[in-house]
Amino acid sequence: EGKDALLEWALYRAPRNDNGVVYHLSTSCQFWVDSMYMLPPFLAAAGYIPEALNNLYGYWNALFDEKAGLMRHMWDDEKKDYVRAAHWGSGNGWALASMARMIGLLPEGYGGDRKKIQQMARVLLDSLLKWMEPEGLFHDVVDDISTFKEVNLSQMSAYTIFRGVNEGWLGKEYLAAAEQMRKAAERMQNPFGFVENVCGAPTFDKPGISPEGQAFFLLMENAAGKVREKK
């Protein structure tokens, strides 16, 4: 019942622009890169593929910075300007992980979209890897080295790589970077099992812990295990 209510909201009641792309908030006409993960995979898993793709491409078109090859954070669709133009690390991770999930959710008959999303993911991943620090971490704003070093983008990127290699749309040459990021994340796990120094809840403006930091550690480890099983 909860899933059905959420699906009805997403499909028919959520605020959206004239092209049907859902806004992140009910109080403003904003697209956030976070939504790229929150909505399209959910709609695709529920069987609403055209709606999922429309939102995925809508967020990408609004937020992808072609010059940097990175995702910006927030766009105001009414003012036609960025609320936050920064290349936020976790936001780029949301985008990567979204595309990894969408590729796996598309049914037969969507080969063109699958190839398009694979290419989008590779472009974003290649741009991100240029900014990876030697220990396998990224800065909270990817291209701003004055911001703190952050762990969850590493987990999200490693998850994407392990899935991509396992499913055959990324080459094995990406695995070395994935393992580097994975080891960096594992070093940040404290004795209680919490992954520290992720972009921390609830304000997400300083290092800490978060539910998504925990979730992506598990997703990363599971995806890495599937790659090992295929060897």
Counted by DSSP, the helix tally is: 9
Shape: globular
Helix content: 40-55%
Ends: how far apart? Answer: 41 Å
Helix/strand layout:
Blueprint lengths: L1 H12 L16 E3 L2 H4 L1 H6 L3 H15 E2 L4 E2 L2 E3 L4 E4 L4 H17 L5 H19 L8 E2 L9 E2 L1 H16 L7 H13 L10 E2 L7 E2 L2 H20 L1
Antiparallel strand pairs: 1-4, 2-3, 4-5, 6-7, 8-9
Structure report:
This protein is mainly alpha-helical. The termini are far apart. It is built from nine helices and nine strands. Helix 5 runs parallel beside helix 7 (152-167) and helix 7 (152-167) packs parallel to helix 9 (211-230). The radius of gyration is 17 Å and the shape is globular.
Descriptive tags:
231 residues, mainly alpha, three-stranded antiparallel sheet, two-stranded antiparallel sheet, 9 helices, 9 strands, 53% helix
Short description:
With 231 residues, the protein is mainly alpha-helical. Helices cover 53% and strands 10% of the residues. Strand 8 (198-199) and strand 9 form a beta hairpin.
